[in-house]
Amino acid sequence: MVEREKENVTVLKTQEESVDKKVRQTVLDLESHTTQKDIELIRSEAEWKIKVTALEDRMRCEIAAKEESFQREQELQRQSREMEEEWCNQKEEEIKLLTQQNADLQVHNFSLQELAQQTDKEKAQFKKEEKKARKEAEEREKNEKKENEKREKEELKRQKKERKENEKREKEEVKRQKKEKKLMEKREKERT
């Protein structure tokens, strides 16, 4: 923005110098034809025109700078609002997460308190049931493993059988082709 104003000032000075030269030339041209009062009037009018042009240019520059500043401010406000909304959403999510974690901890704490209050008998019963459940799970896993192995063996047998059948068909096809070939050769010989 400062650079633009410097450029505008330089342009204005250049314009003023150019206009000033033209005014001087016009004054010199007119001096030979007009009176001193006319020259002063023309000079005064030319100076006023230069000042008006310079003021108009300066106003245009200031207006452009203000508009740019206003737009930048609007953009910053928009970005600020977006960041604020994002921050609020993030904090809400963190609060929800912390609330859920707190509730989970309270449930866990309650479960621990209940467990601590159980009698030795209940604890023994619980361990027994836990062991039984673990054993059942291991048994299930073992059975599933056997079933998978059995399926794999059956699949291998089926694939092997399929391969043998394909080989057998191929051999039969080769034999049939050989037989046809011999038959064709025999017919050829009989013709000749």
If you had to describe this structure to a student in words, what would you say it looks like?
With about 190 residues, the chain is mostly helical. It has two domains: about 1-90, no CATH class; about 125-190. It is built from three helices and no strands. It has helices spanning about 1-30, 35-115, 120-190. Helix 1 (about 1-30) packs antiparallel against helix 2 (about 35-115). It is flat and about 135 Å long. The termini are far apart. The model has no long low-confidence stretch (mean pLDDT about 80).
| Global geometry | flat
Q: Runs with pLDDT <50, length 5+?
A: none
| Overall pLDDT level | 82
Helical proportion, percent range: over 70%
Region (Disordered): 116-192
Biased composition (Basic and acidic residues): 119-175, 182-192
